[in-house]
Structures are given as structure tokens and as C-alpha cells.
Amino acid sequence: MGGRAERLVVVVGFEAAELLDIACVTTGLAMANGLGGADGVPYRVRVVGPGGGAIRCGTGLALGSDGSLERTRGPLDTLVVSGGLGVERFASDVRLVGHVGRLARESRRVASVCTGAGVLAAAGLLDGRRATTHWQFAPLLAARHPGVSVDPAPLWIRDGNVYTSAGVTSALDLTLAFVEEDHGSELARRVARHLVVYMQRPGNQTQMSLFTAAPPPRDDTVRALVAHITARPDADLGTPALAARAGLTPRHLTRLFTEHLGQPPGRYVRAVRTEAAAQLLVSTSLPLASVALRCGFGTPESLRKAFADHYGVPPSRYRDSMRSTGCR
């Protein structure tokens, strides 16, 4: 690049790595280079793997690598370890994990995507830190590495100079966060616009929605009440009202919700209302007071409190960060 200063980013792949874990990072940073302008500090991205040969991803597609993990040397700006089906074999190889640890010590910033967190944990890089991974594998990571505070909810987490992200496309959210941290929010917005994605989702946005996270409850009564709650979040959804609708006592209703949904009616209703409000904030220009009324909160203050508990950010910030940069 003609002697200009660069940010060297090394993305580590391996046999049966997830292609999107790698591509979201490389494409996002390449787009930032193309849109960064002459005064920007460009990213130089290298994809490396064990032995330096082609990386056959879990989908069967093969990526040419830029070199071997073993021979890669720092200093690096950013080290990113991808995840995928082959992470178990990679994380159990003491020699390869040692090279990840070595490069981490030579990097300004260290990150993992999805199950790549298992590699960072095996290298001791997550000890005493809060970290995330794909929600499906979070219990396994926590069981294997009790010194790591595993939080399965957020899209990505920063703890010091170590970043961990959730499954697959959350790698793009993490990459946009890197661009914003390095070059400012305007470039991050331009990258998001060109990639035709929503603006960066807050890192502490939950990985899954109530509406997609679990199959419908098996119990007919609970299933009917769930349909009623999601269709009418502005209705009277107190436990007594729901119990009367189902012809049950409040105590019996609470027992059914806890058994089939893992939480009492009041907590479930609050979560549904919060997610309904999130949808309205992104898809409409309604003022906060109107969103609160439509979703059964009554007042903007109640909505703000629910949002802070559920998403970790106020509604206004959520709306700003989640609005599409293209047509809605």
C-alpha cells in the first residue's frame, strides 16, 4: 500500500471452519478500506490456518490461505479466531492453541467469532473475563471453562482488549464495531449501508427473539395464551386476567407458564411487550409515548425501564442503532 500505515488483521481458520465467520470479517474490513478515503488507515487482512494450506470450510468450500498460523508473527493490530464444526479438533491441539496464545500477546486486540471462543478459552485468554459464544454452545463453554463468565445473550462482548461474539453473522456486528472504534461512526454507517444491513446492533442486544427462540408450547392452554399475548400486547395481560381467560386459577396458570415457558406469566408478558416495542421503534417513526401505549407499558418511563433490563440500552439509542440505512 505504498508505505502507508496499516492495521494488520489476522483471521485464523481451520478445517471445517464456518465460512461466514471468516467472510463477515474480511468483507466488512475490505469494504471499510474501499470507503475509508485517502486519509484513512487501511486494514491489511490475512487469513491463516494450520500448515498454511487451503482451508476447507464446513460447507465444503475451500479458501486459499495467506500463510500458516505457525509462521505468522506480530505485532498485529487484531487477531480474530473463527468458529465452526472443526473447532473441537483445533481447540484440543495444544500446539495450535499455543500459537494463538503467542499471537494474542503480540496483538492490540483479540477476538473470536462463535465457537472460536473455545479456542481463546483453551489458550487461557478468557480466564476471569466475561465472554459470549453461540447460544447453543454457551453451556458447554461454561462447563469446560469455569473460570470464564459466559453470558449467552449478547451479540458481542468486550472485556478489556478481548472481544467475543455470538454465532455466525454476529461477526459482522463485531466488525462494524471495530470500524467504528478505529475510524468513527460515520464510516461504520457507510459500510453498513453498502453491505445492505441494519446499522450496528448494540453488542448487548439479545441473540434470539422470543418469537423464534423456542417452539410453540405443547400445552394447548399455554399456546393459546401466548398467541393472545403476542397479538394484543396492549390488552390487560395481568396474571388474573389471563387466568380468567383460560378458566384457571392464577396459581395454576403460573405453574403452567413456568413448566412450559420457563418463567411466570408476568415476566413473559413483559418480554413480549419489550420485543413488540423494539419492532415498532425500528419499523415506524412513532414517538416513544405512542410506542409505550401500543405495547401495553402505559408510560414511556415503564418502557425505558423494561428496555434497559432487556436490551441494556434505552429505546432511543436502540432506535438509532437499529434503523436500516436503506429503504424501510
Outline:
The chain is of the alpha/beta class.
What is the number of E strands?
11
Reading the helices and strands in chain order gives EHEEEEEHHEHEHEEEHHHHHHHHHH
* Cα-to-Cα separation, first versus last residue: 38 Å
Q: What portion of residues belong to β-strands?
A: 5-15%
Give the mean pLDDT. 88
Number of helical stretches of at least 4 residues: 15
Write out key terms for the chains shown.
328 residues, alpha/beta, two-stranded antiparallel ribbon, 11 strands, disordered C terminus
Describe this structure in words.
The chain has 328 residues and is an alpha/beta fold. The chain is built from 15 helices and eleven strands. It has helices spanning 19-35, 87-91, 94-105, 117-122, 138-144, 170-183, 185-194, 210-213, 220-231, 239-246, 250-261, 265-283, 288-294, 300-311, 315-322, and strands at residues 7-12, 43-49, 55-56, 62-63, 67-68, 76-81, 107-113, 130-131, 149-150, 156-159, 162-165. A seven-stranded mixed beta sheet has the order 5-2-1-6-7-11-10, sandwiched between helices. Strands 3-4 form a two-stranded antiparallel sheet. Strand 8 (130-131), helix 5 and strand 9 form a beta-alpha-beta unit.
Architecture blueprint of SSEs:
Layout: E1 7-12, H1 19-35, E2 43-49, E3 55-56, E4 62-63, E5 67-68, E6 76-81, H2 87-91, H3 94-105, E7 107-113, H4 117-122, E8 130-131, H5 138-144, E9 149-150, E10 156-159, E11 162-165, H6 170-183, H7 185-194, H8 210-213, H9 220-231, H10 239-246, H11 250-261, H12 265-283, H13 288-294, H14 300-311, H15 315-322
Helix pairs in contact: 1-6, 1-7, 6-7, 10-11, 12-14
